[in-house]
Design brief:
Phosphoesterase, 6-stranded mixed beta sheet, alpha/beta, Purple Acid Phosphatase, chain A, domain 2, Calcineurin-like_PHP, 18% strand, Metallophosphoesterase_sf
Length: 364
């Protein structure tokens, strides 16, 4: 009953928000351009309002793409329009202010769509260097890690974007590739139908490629199938599992926090930490950094936050997570949270950019 109530409430709030934005847009169009096709406009707004959900349900990229842009209009519209409405009344309903404010919104959304699209589809490489005070016989005492999370492979993000990751990996030549979660975007069907496994198989590193699940890998109930798909191409998909790599260090891949039965980080490290080898943990959501530090982990790699993906959501993630993006050291533990290689929802990024992290680890 509570779930039904919350669902109905959310639908009502979303519907009223769409009405508010549509009403303001109609007023501006009708006064600025003498636009008179009211019924047509209502139909268009209604179709836009449901487009993201319809596109997501039927796996139609164009509809889902349009719906994502509409969600951005809704998000920024509900933040900016009340301010504009207030200033309009303060200006005593000045006609010029009304016209210019409308054009300002058009310019703003043009900037958001152009700049946000560039940030979303142009991944950058961020370089880090750390030192771990534990002995290992890794390559010349160093290990070059490529960290890429939140691929969100599905209807929108497919082989073309994935090839960019392959290109970066080929250029950087890491010793190991680590992918902490959200490999698929809820449903594995597009991944299989578009044969993305063939592109994933191009991700190669001398020490290996390791991954762990994220929340979106669970949502469609396809996590076990994903594990099989990845294992078939030589990617080690660790679900509360660990591997000792070349007798040099331990990689632990945690089940996502979505799984209420996942093991504690203390249990995983206590069970798998041998010979005092350095421990690298893949944990999709950066919720348990302190627990990892207390348990004795040396490195923890996460994603999930997307660094908010769209400003000002990054201000929220900064409050929710101890390390919502970038690098943080906590005693012996080195925490890295990437903004992610892919996207969820709108194919835009403002205040963040799709990225890959290259981490040079010096074992001493």
């Amino acid at each position: 009953m509570l779930t039904l109530f919350v669902g109905i409430t959310m639908i009502l709030i979303y519907g009223l928000t769409c009405y508010y934005i549509g009403f303001n847009t109609w007023r501006w169009l009708s006064k600025t351009f003498s636009f008179r096709f009211k019924k047509t406009f209502i139909v268009v707004v209604f179709l836009l309002a449901i487009s993201f959900f319809v596109g997501f349900a039927i796996h139609l990229p164009v509809i889902e793409w349009i719906g994502g842009y509409w969600l951005v209009i809704v998000g920024y519209g509900i933040l900016l329009l009340p301010i504009i409405n207030l200033l309009y009344f303060i200006s005593k309903k000045n006609a010029k202010f009304f016209t210019y404010s409308g054009w300002a919104m058009v310019a703003f959304f043009t900037f958001v769509f152009v700049y946000g699209t560039y940030n979303a589809w142009t991944p950058i490489v961020r370089d880090y260097q750390i030192t771990i005070d534990q002995p290992t016989e890794a390559k010349e005492g160093k290990l070059k890690v490529l960290l890429a999370a939140d691929l969100h492979l599905g209807t929108i993000i497919g082989n073309n974007h994935l090839e960019k990751l392959v290109k970066i990996a080929n250029q950087e030549k890491p010793d190991i590739i680590l992918i902490p979660g959200d490999i698929i975007n809820d449903d594995i069907t597009p991944y299989v139908e578009q044969e993305m496994n063939k592109t994933m198989a191009k991700l190669e590193a001398p020490v290996g490629v390791f991954a762990s699940p994220g929340n979106h890998d669970y949502y469609g109930g396809d996590n076990e199938q994903l594990k099989k798909e990845l294992n078939d191409i030589g990617i080690h998909y660790l679900m509360d599992e660990a591997e000792i790599v070349n007798d040099q260090f331990v990689v632990i891949g945690r089940e996502d926090l979505t799984n209420p039965n996942r093991k504690t980080i203390e249990e995983l490290i206590a069970t798998n930490k041998t010979k005092d080898l350095p421990v690298i943990v893949l944990d999709h959501q950066p919720h348990e950094i302190t627990e990892a530090q207390v348990a004795g982990a040396d490195v923890i790699l996460s994603g999930h936050t997307h660094r908010g993906q769209l400003f000002p959501a990054n201000l929220i993630t900064a409050k929710l997570f101890e390390n919502d993006w970038g690098y943080m050291q906590k005693e012996q533990l080195h925490s890295f949270t990437t903004s992610g290689f892919g996207l969820w929802g709108p194919t835009l990024r403002i205040g963040s950019q799709s990225e890959v992290m290259i981490i040079e680890i010096d074992f001493r």
